[in-house]
Amino acid sequence: MTLTDRTIKAAKPKEKPYKLSDSKGLYFEISPAGGKLWRLKYRIDGREKRLSFGAYPEVSLADAREQRDEARSLLVKD
User: Fold this and answer.
1) Are 29 and 47 in contact, with CB atoms under 8 Å apart?
2) Hey, how many other C-beta atoms are within 10 angstroms of the C-beta on 38?
3) CA 76 to CA 66: how far, in whole Å?
4) Residues sharing a CB contact under 8 Å with residue 60, sequence separation 6 or more, in sequence order
5) Per residue in 10-29, pLDDT tens?
6) The CATH number of 5-77 is which of 1.20.1300.10, 3.30.160.390, 3.40.920.10, 3.30.450.40?
7) Cα–Cα distance for residue pair 12/70, rounded to 1 Å
8) Residue ranges of the domains in the chain?
9) Which residues of the chain have a pLDDT value below 50?
10) Which end of the chain is least crowded, N or C, by CB within 10 Å?
């Protein structure tokens, strides 16, 4: 299920960090302190890696998806 702006705005901090998944490895991470970060999870040579795209609301949902697509195209080329 993909995220919506309404879901992101309604996300509240909990005791432990948690994730809201979007698609193609993109997810939204909410920290206990209230930080909201965009991250991309991918694998290279069987090892899991993460890439950060910035904090919400500075980086919008549309911007994060665009950055995800650019990053995935660069990963495929290598």
Assistant:
1) no
2) 25
3) 16
4) 5
5) 999 999 999 999 999 999 99
6) 3.30.160.390
7) 29
8) 5-77
9) none
10) C
